[in-house]
Amino acid sequence: MKRTGYLHDDRYLLHDTGDYHPEMPDRLKAIHTGISQGGLLDKLVTLKAVMPDFKYIEAVHDRDYISRFEGACMSGRTSFLHPDNQMCFDTFNAALLAVGGILEAARQVMSGELDNAFCAVRPPGHHAEVAEAMGFCYFNNVAIAARYLISQWNLERVGIVDFDVHHGNGTQHIFEDDPRVFYYSLHEHPSFAFPGTGRTFEEGRGKGMGFTRNLPILPGQGDSDYQTHMLEDFIPTFDSFKPEVILVSTGFDAHEDDDMSGVSLTTAGYSMVMAHIMNSAERHARGRLISVLEGGYCLARLPELARDHVSILLNG
């Protein structure tokens, strides 16, 4: 059995998005319930969030943007830059703790204290641009972790796999000219889904050309289509790149019962996708994998999805 870290902190619940916002605190409660009722808690190494060094956030986001975000929270505003980005006084602190907790999980994986980790954080991050909050996201958690791994652990090849049903525009844009980071995304076709990016011809630019790979999924497609993409595209792509660590933007909103998309991935289909990613980490990255929560809004399905996801991390 693997030494799997589980980042869980009740302070993430203080990020209040209002009564009707899909990115609600109950998401984390449902995830924790699934892991607990699945009998997995005592098999995990529970991690608590810590405050990050601001230099790691500033390696991705503009200082002015960080200051404006903090000021908006402190002034009592209930949204930032767009009505979708609902927030409260505690949102800035929660976003800092999300980053800090993920970086601590990454440190422990790289030091060998853990084999892998699941970071159940909020706010999510993959839509956040260098100087813009988007799609419920303020700090790009995975991008900050990737920059941390490169700068602090001298890695030359970081793989990011994003299977949230919405394309991670922020993550792609941050690394599109960086050949050290391969951004691989499976998401609903941009003609049908927010944010409208992530088409197949988006392959990076400059030195990063060829290190971005987008696999758009049409509405109604499900397990067999994902399986084909994983077998025929993902595996050979990452076999060629040979990542030294894999970061996963884990979005559970491609599930057939999630109202946020028209994609029809089942619970078993999610396990299949994650098993392929886990196998890639075993082959190329000594099993080093850090999974970071992004979307997933069906409270009835989140418990089983989180349970199965963590089971795969534990059992390899």
Structure overview:
The protein is built from 9 helices and 10 strands. Helix 1 links the parallel strand 1 (4-7) and strand 2. It has helices at 26-37, 54-58, 63-74, 91-111, 141-153, 169-175, 223-241, 267-284, 302-315; strands spanning 4-7, 45-47, 79-80, 82-86, 116-119, 158-162, 181-188, 212-217, 245-250, 289-293. With 316 residues, it is α/β, with parallel strands linked by helices. Helix 4 packs parallel to helix 5. An 8-stranded parallel sheet has the order 2-1-5-10-9-6-7-8, with helices on both faces. It has a two-stranded antiparallel ribbon with strand order 3-4. The longest helix has 21 residues, at 91-111. It has a single domain, classed as Arginase, Chain A. The chain is globular. The termini are close together. The protein is 38% helix and 15% strand.
Gist?
The chain is α/β, with parallel strands linked by helices.
Protein traits:
316 residues; 9 helices; two-stranded antiparallel sheet
Percent of residues in β-strands: 15-25%
- Report Rg: 18 Å
Amount of helix: 25-40%
The domain count comes to 1
**The level-1 CATH class:** Alpha Beta
Output the number of helix runs. Answer: 9
- Structural class of the secondary structure composition? alpha/beta
End-to-end separation in angstroms reads 7 Å
SSE order, one letter for each helix or strand: EHEHHEEHEHEHEEHEHEH
**What's the overall average pLDDT, rounded?**
98
Largest sheet: 8 strands, parallel
CATH topology: Arginase, Chain A
Task: Tell me the number of strands.
Answer: 10
CATH architecture: 3-Layer(aba) Sandwich
Question: Which sequence of strands runs across the widest sheet?
Answer: 2-1-5-10-9-6-7-8
Name the overall outline. Answer: globular
What is the name of the CATH superfamily? Histone deacetylase domain
* Poorly predicted runs of 5 or more residues: none
